[in-house]
Design goal:
The protein has 181 residues and is α+β, with helices and mostly antiparallel strands. It is built from four helices and eight strands, in the order E-H-E-E-E-E-H-E-E-H-E-H. Strands 1, 2, 3, 4, 5, 6, 7 and 8 form an eight-stranded antiparallel β-sheet that branches.
Length: 181
């Protein structure tokens, strides 16, 4: 039986930050739009306080989450235990993309390891936390983080990343503005 909380309980804070992978789900308002679910990892998640979390958004092949939270703010972040006690936790709330040059960006990005591919920090204002058993989630062993994205970002360099973002991250699959107005 699942449990729900209005804020992140103290007993979940360390557990959330220790998970090597989490999933981010967002969608546009349009019913025919693409629902997006993205895996994230590599020490890119932080609990700011009982009602706020953030993750480091790295340059990738799309910018769906940024576009969706710009349009409507709806965002869910899900964690599941692949080791230890079975557990699934979902953080429901309103997300926002904090981009370089915006007021809170420097303070937020300072909470994470420096990454060449950093494009934004996604901040979630948590409205509800759901916790459930996770009995069907398999046990899995973590081999280690992949360095492919970091290596690619380093090779691209700042100018190459700017060009890539302009070409590939300007809009979502549904044409919503992501890194452009």
């Amino acid at each position: 039986m699942g449990r729900f909380f209005d804020a992140i309980p103290d007993h979940l804070v360390d557990w959330l930050e220790e998970q090597p992978i989490f999933f981010v789900a967002s969608a546009p308002l349009a019913g025919e739009g693409h629902v997006n679910v993205s895996p994230k990892g590599d020490d890119t998640f932080r609990v700011i306080d009982a009602g706020t979390v953030a993750y480091l958004d790295l340059t990738g092949s799309g910018a769906e989450t940024i576009a969706h939270v710009r349009e409507n703010g709806r965002l869910t972040i899900m964690f599941c235990a692949f080791a230890g006690k079975p557990n699934i936790v979902r953080l429901f709330g309103r997300g926002e993309a904090v981009l370089p040059g915006q007021a809170d960006f420097a303070a937020l990005v300072a909470r994470f390891p420096a990454k060449a591919g950093t494009r934004a920090v996604i901040r979630l204002h948590v409205e509800q936390v759901g916790s459930s058993c996770g009995y069907s989630v398999p046990f899995m062993d973590l081999v280690g983080p992949r360095t492919t994205l970091d290596d690619w970002s380093q090779r691209k360099g700042p100018e190459g990343l700017d060009e890539y973002r302009a070409e590939k991250n300007a809009t979502s699959l549904d044409g919503l503005p992501a890194l452009t107005d």
